[in-house]
Amino acid sequence: MAPPQGSRAPLEFGGPLGAAALLLLLPATMFHLLLVARSGPARLLGPPPYLPGPEALWSPRALLLWLAWLGLQAALYLLPARKVAEGQELKDKSRLRYPINGFQALMLTALLVGLGVSAGLPLGALPEMLLPLAFAATLTAFIFSLFLYVKALLAPASALAPGGNSGNPIYDFFLGRELNPRICFFDFKYFCELRPGLIGWVLINLALLVQEAELRGSPSLAMWLVNGFQLLYVGDALWHEEAVLTTMDIIHDGFGFMLAFGDLAWVPFTYSLQAQFLLYHPQALGLPMASVICLINATGYYIFRGANSQKNTFRKNPSDPRVADLETIATATGRQLLVSGWWGMVRHPNYLGDLIMALAWSLPCGVSHLLPYFYLLYFTALLVHREARDERQCQQKYGLAWHEYCRRVPYRIVPYIY
User: Fold this and answer.
1) How far apart are CA 361 and CA 356, in angstroms?
2) pTM (2 decimals)?
């Protein structure tokens, strides 16, 4: 049952035509990056070296491996959690419960992979399967999104997301109709958000490092840096897993193709682009430059973690001594807006830290190719778009208080620039 017309959110991403284009453009971009990363010229804006045929994309072995990976992560999700957290209040005044065991899943996965490698598992062969694995992940995302769309047709109006119930099937399929699709207590969106894709990303990175060691005798310093930086990022996300319950993905966006494909395919196979590039295009990196890059990543991480921790601490307990002295603006909703500390510097300091880290992940790849900087370019566009969406929602939610906040904190992401 569709909600009343007045409850529907404005169409985003160019409406149905934009959604239809993204259904094709996102997978095409992912496969383009996979193909050019291993090519000699490695041109981001040039054509791929070849167009793979069905035999290069379809592999029953890769599909079974991918389904086994999803099954393993689902099994780890179902293990007893160190904590069960409540989400935000829903339209029907209820709160869903979520297991906080993502970091435990990462550690158990590392243990299982370590045991597998010691028993002869050829981890270094994984990079040769990236194309069929990406195809299996894309196929899974399409089928899963269709299941989610059909399931949402039976969901009550109170369970639908604000934006994914326009009545246009293509747009709703892309954006997602249901806010928190579940079977019993297994939450599909929450599971996909941080588990298979993020942990898969660092596993692919590790496999690329192992293959480089097999090809060249030892991993390069550049490959070590990329692996270390991105493992820190993933480990941080899973250690602070509870914080995802207050993000736009969880509390606002429906679960459709946009998030399903992004979580299951885009993240592991495009976020590992720097490591893919380094395997096929090794870069010499001296200790002085490596030290500078480490300092850049540490600066980004300090801003990112500091801003997120300050926000999460304030949300949990505004009287906490760590945030009690921060200046705030009262809103009509009863909530307070921070206008000092990290959140008095720019409106989204966590995004600033994210972008600085993205730069540090690309620098070990040198400056002779644009391709390794795709993540930085894409992530900049993503965060600017997300910031604009967040601005609209906050303006609707907080009204005059938000206008005052914007007056007090005029810069959005980068101080004195944007």
Assistant:
1) 9
2) 0.91
